[in-house]
Amino acid sequence: MKIKQVCALSGLTARAVRFYCERGLIHPTSYELNGRNYYEYSQEDVRTLRRVGTLRRAEFSLEEISSMMQDEKCVQKVIETHMQKLREREMRTEAMLQKMQSLCNTPHMDFHAFADALEENSPPQED
């Protein structure tokens, strides 16, 4: 099947499908016609793309997804590590929300005062 149909069935954009191909997450059949490369996608490619899309929406990285696809023995560990990252981010987010709430009612709060107050006691940002 062609990329347009794959996009419709997987819910992904053509750009995302091509990106996942480049990353080696799927391996469509390729052929050349009139000097151009074309790809033919299988039903299994579509299923894999749907799964990748689902995991990306759950905020798994491409590296995590690739690891799970390549080594089924690591799936549980990747999930556990991912859940821990989500919990840590949730705690940072909750702390930030509480800090903002306490600053929200401060009279005459401008950009500089707000940013400076928010920065106080904030942990360094992770990449």
Q: Look at the structure and give the CATH class of the largest domain.
A: Mainly Alpha
Secondary structural class? mainly alpha
CATH architecture of the largest domain: Orthogonal Bundle
Helix-strand string: HHEEHHHH
Number of domains: 2
Report the total helices.
6
Distance between the termini: 38 Å
Into which percent range does the helicity of residues fall? 55-70%
Low-confidence stretches: none
- The general outline is elongated
Describe the main β-sheet briefly. Answer: 2 strands, antiparallel
Radius of gyration: 22 Å
CATH topology of the largest domain: Multidrug-efflux Transporter Regulator, Chain: A, Domain 2
User: What does the average pLDDT come to?
Assistant: 91
The overall strand count is: 2
Percent range for β-strand residues:
5-15%
* Strand arrangement across the biggest beta sheet: 1-2
Structure description:
The protein has 127 residues and is mainly alpha-helical. The protein folds into two domains: 3-61, Multidrug-efflux Transporter Regulator, Chain: A, Domain 2 (Orthogonal Bundle); 77-119. The protein is 63% helix and 8% strand. The chain is built from six helices and two strands. It has helices at 3-10, 14-22, 43-57, 62-70, 75-104, 111-119, and strands at 29-33, 36-40. Strands 1-2 form a two-stranded antiparallel ribbon. It is elongated, with a radius of gyration of 22 Å. It starts with a helix and ends in an 8-residue tail after the last helix. The mean pLDDT is 91.
